[in-house]
Amino acid sequence: MISWSWGWIMYFKWLLIVLIITSCARESEVKRPIRAVQAPGTECFKDTKETFRKYLSGKASRAAVIQFWQCGKKSLKAFLKYVSDDAEGVYKASYLRDFLNRFYLNSKDLELSAPLFEELMEVKRVFLGGSRKKILRSELEETISLIDQFMFISLELRPYMSVLSVSSSKVSSSRLQQALDKLDWSLKRVALLITQKGSEYSFSHMNQLFKQLVLYFESSTDWSKFVPILAKFKKAFIGNGETVVRNMDWEYVAKVVRVVYGDWLRLKYYVLTPYWYQEPQLKELDRGAEETFAYLEKVLEKKNISQEEIKDLLEAVQSSQVIDLDSQLVLHIWNISVKKFFADKMNSSPFDLTLEKLKGFKRTYRNWIDTQFLIVKKKDRSKSPLWSELKRAMNGPWTLVNDEKGRIRLDGKKVPYTPLSLGRLNVERLFIRLLIQTYAKDSQRKSQIIGLSLDELQEAFQDFKPLLVELGLVKPDDQDYYKTIFYYTNLFMPRSNGDKIVQYEEGIDYLRYIFSGIHQGEEIQKALQVACEEGVSELKGKGFPLACYREHILAGFSQFYENMPFLVSAIQRYKKENWYTFQKILFDVVSKRADRSFVTFSEHKKMVIFLHFLEVLFLRFDQNRDGVIGLKEAWKAFKLFKRFLERLLPNPEIAWPLFTYMLKYGYNPVTEGKAISELRFKNWQWKPESEWKIGADRLMVLRIIRSLSASL
Q1: Average pLDDT for 576-585
Q2: pLDDT in tens, 464-493
Q3: What's this model's pTM, rounded to 2 decimal places?
Q4: Which one of 52, 104, 340, 556 has the minimum C-beta count within 10 Å?
C-alpha cells in the first residue's frame, strides 16, 4: 500500500509540472514557418529542473514557483501568436514541441524528447479530452486557464512539501495533519479537474510517462516499477479492472492516495522509530489506523477483496523489488488470518477479505492499541481487563526486560519493566491470545485465554510452519517440531508446570526467549562472519566452519553472552576440552545432521536460543547459585519434570530414582538398552537416598537433554 501511494503522489506532483505543455505530439513533422520570437523571457524555463527539485523538498520560493507557471502561460500565448494553424483553430501537436524546444527550452538539457512528448499528449487527453495528434486553439486557451488552477494548487502545497516529501527530520502532529489536509484538498481538486472533462488513463501510458520523466529529471529511482503495483492495487481496492483508470475512478483514486500516503508518512515520522511505544507516536498510529479502517469499510461495503487480488498485489510488490518480500509466505499468513483468526459466518470464500473479517481485525487492533495506551498513560488500569491480561504476562519470577540489543537479561533479578519491553510483551501477548482463541477446542480455555493442548498446538504448528521455516527454527521436512515446542514450553520456562497444556504464560515466556535468542544470535553471527570470513565464503554463505566457530565463540563468550552472567562464569571455569564437549553436545541437541564440519546460521541461532532455556532452568532451580543442581534442588525440579518422566516410563514409581540418576550420570538408562547401565541404575535405586550424591552442572544437564532429545 505504501508503494502504491507513493507512485500516485509522484504522478500528481509531476502533473503539476507537465500540464503547462499539455498540447504535445507524437510525430516529427516539418516545422511550420514562424517568425522569430524576440520577446524577453524566452529562457524562463532554464531553472526548471532545479525548481522542481527544490519544490519537492520544500525549498522553492513562492516567487520561483509563480515564475515557472507564468513562463508556461507565456510560452503558450506566444505559440498562439506566432505559429500558424493548419486549419481554423487546429494545430498539429508537433508544432508546439518544435516551438518550445526552439525558443523556450533551447538547450539539450531541457529539450523535450519525442517519447516524452507523446506521453504528455496523453496527459493532455486525460485532462482536456480531444486527440493526441492534434490540438485545438480552444484547448490551448483552456490549458492557459488550467495553469492558473495548478499554480494555485502548487502554491497552496508549497509550505507543506518538506513534510510531504519527508525532507523534514521531525514533524509535530498538528503540522503533519495540516499537510495531510492540504494534500487531501489538492488531490480532490486535481481529481475534479480530470472528472469534469477528462478521460480514462491506461497504466501502460503511465508506465511510459514515468520512464520518460525519470530520464528527463535524472531521477535515481525508476518510478515506473511502481506502476504494476498501482494497477493491482486499483483493481483490488477501487475495482473496474487493472488496465485503466476510468473517468469516474479519479475521485476514489484521490481518496485512497490520501489515506495510504498518510499512513506512510505516519510510519516514517512516528512508527518506524526507536520511540514507537511513546504516547505521541501511538496517537498518530491510531489516527492513521482509524482512517484506514474507515476507508476499507467503505470499500468492503461495495465489494469483497478476493484472495486472487491479494495474491496478485503481493506478487507485483515482490517483482518490483520495492521491498524484500516473500509473497508466498505473506499470502500464507494472510490466508491463516482471514480463514481462522478472523473467520466470518457469511458464505464468502474463506480467504477473501470481507467487512465482517475487517471488523475482527479492528477488534484485535483495538485490543492491542488500548493496552498500549494503558502502558504509557499509567491511569485507569486497575479495573481494566486488558491490563489484567497483560499483568498475567508480566508476573513471572523475574522480569523479561530487553536491553538495547533486544536481549533479555538472565540473572534472576526483578528490574522494572521499560515501556519498550512492555510494548514488545504486549505484541507477544496478543499473538498468544489469538492462538488460544483460534485453536483451543475447549470453550473455557478459549474464553479465559488459558492455553492449548498438544493436539491443538499441532494444528497451529502446521499452519505457521512456513513462518518457522523462514525464521530458521524448523526444517521444511520436519513434521514433529511441535512436540519440541510443547515440551520446551512446558518444562523450560520460568512458569512451566509440566501439565498437559501449554499455558498462556508459558507461551508468552517461550516467545520472549525465542525472539531474544534470534536477536542475540544475529548479533553474534555478524561478529563471526567477520572473524570467519574466509570459511564462510568457502561455504557459500550458509554457515561457519566448526573449528573457527567454536574458537571464536569461546574467545568472545563473555561479550556475546553478557546478558547471561552465570553462564559466562560457568564457561570461564571450563578447561578448553570441556568447552569443546559442551559445544558438541549443544550442537547435538539442536541438530541431527550427520556432517559436523560446519555450523549453519540456523543451527547457530538455535543454540543461542537453547542457552536461554538452559539458563532459565538453572536460574529457577540452582537457588544457591553455585553452578550445580544438588539433591534438595533436584527435588524441586522433579516436581516439574515428574509428569513428563511418568509418561515415558512403564513404571511411574521409578521416576524419582531415574531423575536423580540422570543428574548423576548424564543419561537415561531406561532407553539406552545396555546391561551395565541397567545394573548401575538398579544399584542406585536400591541405595538409601542419604547416600545419593549429585551435583549436576550445565554440561551434565546438557547430556541429559541430549539423552532425552528423542522424547522432546
Answers
A1: 94
A2: 999 899 888 888 999 999 999 999 999 999
A3: 0.84
A4: 556
Distance from C-alpha of 142 to C-alpha of 76, rounded to nearest angstrom: 11
Using CB atoms within 10 A of its CB, is residue 669 exposed (0-12), middle (13-18) or buried (19+)?
buried
Which residues have a Cβ under 8 Å from the Cβ of 433 and sit 6 or more positions away? Answer: 367, 389, 449, 504
- Cβ proximity of 201 and 244 under 8 Å: yes
CA distance 79 to 87: 15
Task: List Cβ neighbours of 68 (8 Å cut-off, separation of 6 or more).
Answer: 44, 45, 47, 48, 51
Nearest of 204, 321, 183, 205 to residue 255 by alpha carbon? 183
Q: Are strands 90-92 and 134-136 parallel, antiparallel or unpaired?
A: antiparallel
Q: At 414, phi and psi to the nearest 5? A: -100, 90
Could you tell me the three cell numbers for 92?
498539429
Q: Enter the DSSP assignment of 244.
A: E
Nearest CA to 409 out of 280, 260, 519 is that of: 519
pLDDT tens column, 666-679: 988 877 666 677 88
CA 136 – CA 144 distance, rounded (Å): 13
Written as nine digits, the cell of 524 is 553474534
Mention every residue, 6+ apart, whose C-beta is less than 8 A from residue 89. Answer: 136, 137, 138
CA–CA dist 254, 12 (Å, integer): 10
666 in the Ramachandran plot: left (φ > 0), alpha (ψ -120 to 50) or beta?
left
Q: pLDDT value at position 471?
A: 82
Q: How many CA atoms lie within 13 A of 644 on its CB side?
A: 24
Q: Rounded to 5 degrees, what angle do the CA atoms 687, 614, 636 make?
A: 40
